[in-house]
Amino acid sequence: GSNRTELIVETIQKIGGFLSTFGSSLILSDIAKKVRNGKETDPYQRIMVGMSIFDILYSFFLFFLGTWMAPVETGSLWAKGNMASCTAQGFFFMFGGSGEV
Questions:
Q1: Which of 27, 69, 80, 91 could cross-link to 85 by cystine, CB 3.0-4.6 Å?
Q2: How many other CB atoms sit within 10 Å of the CB of residue 71?
Q3: pLDDT given at position 93
C-alpha cells in the first residue's frame, strides 16, 4: 500500500543521503590531508572541495534528514519538525543545490 511505498522511499532516501554525505566527507578529508602535509592542490581538487561542501549540505539536509524536519502537522512519515526546521531545511536545500549546479 501507500504506507509501505512511503516507507521504502524514505528509507532509500536516507541511506542514499548518508552515503553521499559520507563520500563527500571522505573527499574533503583526503584533500585536507594533502593541504596539512604541505602539498599543493591543483584546480581539480579545489573544484572538488567546493562541490563536496555543497553536496554535504544538499544530501544531508534534503535526503538524510528528509521528512524528519517537516512539521508534524503535515502527516508525513517520520515528520518531527516545525515551521522553523522546515524553513532551515529549505534554505540549505536551495543553497546546497545551487552550489552543485
A1: 69
A2: 16
A3: 87
- Using alpha carbons, list the distances in angstroms from residue 71 to 8, 13, 80, 87, 92: 20, 18, 6, 10, 16
The answer to whether residues 96 and 55 touch, using CB atoms and an 8 Å cutoff, is yes
∠ CA 70-78-76, nearest 5°, is 60
Low-confidence ranges of the chain (pLDDT < 70): 1
| pLDDT score, position 1 | 60
Q: What percent of the chain has pLDDT over 70?
A: 98
Residue bearing cell 552543485: 100
Q: What is the 3-state secondary structure (H, E, C) of the chain?
A: CHHHHHHHHHHHHHHHHHHHHHHHHHHHHHHHHHHHCCCCCCHHHHHHHHHHHHHHHHHHHHHHCHHHHCEHHHCCCCCCECHHHHHHHHHHHHHHHHHHC
